[in-house]
């Protein structure tokens, strides 16, 4: 009886980060690592997939791992702690099972992968190169709410776009480059609600429209944007002259 209502849904995510050969590798590694372990990876816009151009793949992998190695895992009440616990033991188990599956199918743990307590785990980076098998992994298909990401390489920009778009989520994506033509191409063809250039994906805190495509949701959050989305247009036509409105244009 209430009729069809407009609604906003902010659903799952897990974002890709694409790093081109001209990128600032130190910046990319630091931002990507933070995107993995911030809030222990329990964010819809956490980095879950890293796509690096072949010429910078090895160096980026090494530096992301080095940044993750600096993360102090522990009690959030301790001022030295950088990353706290996961929400429950089951979340740790799901992450470790997904990592184990990736390794069994040909992947390699670059850093992390160890349980540190009931709800504590190391931030983890998993390398995987077989692109066909990659898309079958839980770490690729699902939103694992934990500090873990896949890393792989690409040769051509179109390949990176295809891999990123093949996930069922489309919340945010990060691009690291200073080549404006390639950045514009990525912005145009990546199927995501927001593209962050030379930074990690993060919630807009209301300053700009936040929301995704595909299975990442419907509509946009943000100051004014949510109101606009659920606002209904009402058209009013006055027939002042006593003749049909269609006659006014003649």
Detailed description of the structure:
This protein is of the alpha/beta class. Helix content is 31%, strand content 18%. The protein has helices spanning 25-37, 54-69, 89-104, 131-134, 138-141, 157-165, 180-189, 225-229; strands spanning 9-10, 15-19, 47-53, 108-111, 124-127, 148-154, 169-170, 172-176, 194-197, 213-214, 217-218. Strand 2, helix 1 and strand 3 (47-53) form a beta-alpha-beta unit. The longest helix is centred in the first third of the chain and has 16 residues, at 54-69.
Feature tags:
alpha/beta; 31% helix; 11 strands; globular; seven-stranded mixed β-sheet; two-stranded antiparallel ribbon; Aldehyde Dehydrogenase, Chain A, domain 2; 250 residues
In short:
The chain has helices spanning 25-37, 54-69, 89-104, 131-134, 138-141, 157-165, 180-189, 225-229; strands spanning 9-10, 15-19, 47-53, 108-111, 124-127, 148-154, 169-170, 172-176, 194-197, 213-214, 217-218. It has 250 residues and is α/β, with parallel strands linked by helices.
